[in-house]
Amino acid sequence: MQVNLANYYYDNLTSIYQRIKKLEGIINTVFMPDGLDTPSLEVNPMPTQILNRSAYLWTLGCMRQLQDVIDWLVGTFNGYNLVDFTTGESTAKVNLWKPNSLMINDNYWQQLQNNFDRVNKLLDQLEKYAEPYVKG
Questions:
Q1: CA nearest 123: which of 60, 77, 61, 57?
Q2: In angstroms, rounded to a whole number, what is the distance separating the alpha carbons of residues 62 and 10?
Q3: What confidence score (pLDDT) does residue 55 get?
């Protein structure tokens, strides 16, 4: 179970961070900022092979890091006015669920999947906002 948990986090976070790197590249290309203060987009490996306190702290750290990255990205897009074209409204931040234990049950998996689904939906939305600035 623990290997599946680590792989699940790693695979989803890596995929999300790759999408964020592309969006960051668009911002750098279009707006040429003096340097974005980009948070880390790397996933550290799980420090243990068993489900223990270290594994729990790793999962919590992964979600906190993802929350920080998403908050940064939404703030950056809003700051450059890359927002909903129809309404002109800024993008709302997404509040992610944070694990409060390592009791791995159906609820844990569902909450985790909901986090990754919410983030990917947000990235879909931000990609649409950036689309006009990407050369075809």
A1: 77
A2: 9
A3: 92
Q: Which amino acid is at 69?
A: V
Task: Report the predicted TM-score, pTM, of the whole model to 2 decimal places.
Answer: 0.93
Q: Would you say 104 and 129 are in contact if contact means Cβ atoms under 8 Å apart?
A: no
Average pLDDT score, the chain: 92
Joined tokens for residue 23: 């969006």
Of 97, 113, 95, the residue nearest 11 (C-alpha): 113
pLDDT reported for residue 72? 97
Residue 42 CB neighbours (<10 A): 9
116 vs 66: CA distance, rounded Å: 10
Say how far apart CA 45 and CA 32 lie, in whole Å. 33
As a whole number of angstroms, the distance between CA 51 and CA 21 comes to: 31
Question: For residue 101, what are its two tokens?
Answer: 């234990």
DSSP 52-109: SHHHHHHHHHHHHHHHHHHHHHHHHHHHTT---TTT-PPPPP-PPP--SS---SHHHH
